Amino acid sequence: MIEKLRRKMSNETIIIVFFLFILILVSITFTLLYGSFLSTRNIKLLFQHMSVTALAALGLTFVIIVGHFDMSFHMVGCFAGMTASFMIGEGYLPLPSVILGLLVGLIFGFVNGITIGKFNLPDMIITIGTGSIALGLGYLYSGGAFIYDNFLVSGILKINNSEWFGIPFPTILMIISYFIAYMVLNRSKYGRYFYATGDNKEIAIFSGIRVKLYIIVAFIISAFLSSLATILITSAQGVGNVKAGLNLLMPAYASIYIGISVFRKPTVIGTLFGALFTSIMLNGFTLMNIPFYFQDLTISSTMIITIIFSKKIITNLTTQKTSTVQTSDKEVAS
Amino acid sequence: MKKISVRFGDLFKARYTLIWVLFLMIVMFSFSSSAFRSMANLLGVLRNSGIDAILVLGLTWIVATGGIDVSFPDVAAFTSMITALLIKDGFQWGPTILIALLCGTSFGLLSGFLIVHFKFPPLIATIGVSGIAKAMASLLGSGQPIEITRSGHLVDSLMFGDILGFPILFLIAIIIYLISCYLQDQTAIGQYLYALGENRKAVLEAGIQEGKILFSLYTFSALMASVGGILLTALLSSGQPRIGFAFFLSGLTSVFIGAIIIKVGKANVIGTLIGVIILAVLSNGFTLLGIPYYIELIIKGMLLIIGIVIIEISKFKRRANRIGVM
């Protein structure tokens, strides 16, 4: 029977079905353990929480696709979040504050992209350097103290709290960004160019693809979306905190690499699944009243176990057909 | 023939830039702060840099092979917590150190296993392992630091004592670094490290067991992080579950800054030692001048970027010269 199914469906469908099956299994387990897991309130909370991680992870996905690493996005996010909070504290309206915050993020993304894409400097070193500069600048506004001023009256809290058609606004933002990213990466020539840049830079150059441009754009997207994510965190916490974005590093990488382990290459859908999976695990365990420091343990063990299992299981499920897809996996792993 | 003698002009080459930066920093801080130039303070700087240096030794070689290990600060936090817990429960230092080293090293075994056997990218494997280590460290003290009230005479004298005026901690670090310098430059293992960083395929073709080397490197890194964690516990008389982030940035920065010194663009032990000392001098001088912690972050980031730019320019020039000759 499995043989029949395998013939009918494409590899990708098998993987998605399999992954959905595991998600449902996990959700059922949590519902049995803890009744309110599937309540509307909890699901809203889950998606609200997930959208932050998912946005940061989406930006990072672009950087991973072009074959680089970004160790600065969470620290750039901290700076952007603090910039927005500072503007709010000075009495500006939320919209210009958020725009300025995002702009600051963009500038750091641009610097990362220029140094790494155009001048070919090593990505890890540069991003750690720019990241620590960004974090240091984030401290400058208040010397590391929380910014509370004007937060309750300015309306920035609404970014997180407002709902459209019963869906929380961060989730709408997430859905829109994922839709755009999916269209760009999977349904346009630019997506091909991004993947080509990451797969083999030299061939991409000889094919006439402006590799440097795509690397710069990838880093800009990463910095922009992580800034957005951190501003969402700031809005959710109702306070300007320098360290707001620092916890994004692990979940973002975890989401992407869960996605990569499942789809054999960095994809938008894979990242979304990864973010959903880590968020469900996190939410489920939080409902069970585990202490806060188990968050890291949950995310990292979920990531490690998923990657190992999907390497074993999915290879078995799809071995007969995969020949072209698996080559990109080696590129990512190396 | 390779020339071994150092010419005067060589001292002004790009690869020695940061040594001049260190020199200038020491001179500037000595002029502007009388507290900085006191003997006790300078020895304190050396003592602190000793621990930092031990923490990042394993990382240096991992970076040299082209990998990265971000789990070392959390492994150190974990060992510091388990050491504090055991000492508090009435264990002697001997068995405590043994248990702490074993537990800490097991994290390295895990990340090595994930990287070699399951082909995880090093960054991802070590991010995962660091999450586990961080959570375990918090778990041991339920999220709180653990204080040690009795630390024993021997340990105190080791931590704060000195031989010939040098802090013992720094001397321990120097000895470990001399041994590893020998390993790196004079033995085959050291050659394999850099070969792995240069051309992985060639290494495989040459029949070198890449897996074994990587596995032992990640284990070694965790071992060194554990040693650093134990020393930290003894120095601070407490186990700290959340020291991770402070060491994360400064540790990686010192290794990458070190990669700019001596071996151009490649992480090496002497470079790392100098990098650690540069950062220790910087943070000590800034603290004494009353400059806040976050300015230090900015300066560190700039040092990294400026350093890497200098290296790239010098590489570019050298390449241009070579092409010109041909």
Walk me through the topology.
The complex is a heterodimer of chains A (334) and B (326).
Chain A: H1 2-8, H2 11-33, H3 40-65, H4 73-89, H5 94-118, H6 123-140, H7 151-154, H8 157-161, E1 163-164, E2 167-168, H9 169-187, H10 189-199, H11 201-206, H12 211-237, H13 249-263, H14 268-287, H15 294-318, H16 325-333
Antiparallel strand pairs in A: 1-2
Helix pairs in contact in A: 2-14, 3-9, 3-12, 3-13, 3-14, 4-5, 4-6, 4-12, 5-6, 5-12, 9-10, 13-14, 13-15, 14-15
Chain B: H1 17-32, H2 39-64, H3 72-88, H4 93-117, H5 122-140, E1 146-147, H6 153-160, E2 162-163, E3 166-167, H7 168-186, H8 188-198, H9 200-205, H10 210-236, E4 238-239, H11 244-258, H12 269-289, H13 293-325
Antiparallel strand pairs in B: 1-4, 2-3
Helix pairs in contact in B: 1-12, 2-7, 2-8, 2-10, 2-11, 2-12, 3-4, 3-5, 3-10, 3-11, 4-5, 4-10, 7-8, 11-12, 11-13
Structural features, described:
The complex is a heterodimer of chains A (334) and B (326). Chain A contains 16 helices and 2 strands. Chain A has 334 residues and is an all-alpha fold. Chain A has one domain: ABC transporter involved in vitamin B12 uptake, BtuC, CATH 1.10.3470. In chain A, helix 2 packs parallel to helix 14 and helix 13 packs across helix 14. Chain A starts with a helix and ends with a helix. The model of chain B has no long low-confidence stretch (mean pLDDT 84). Chain B has a single domain, classed as ABC transporter involved in vitamin B12 uptake, BtuC. Chains A and B meet through helix 6, helix 13 and helix 15 of A and helix 5, helix 11 and helix 13 of B.
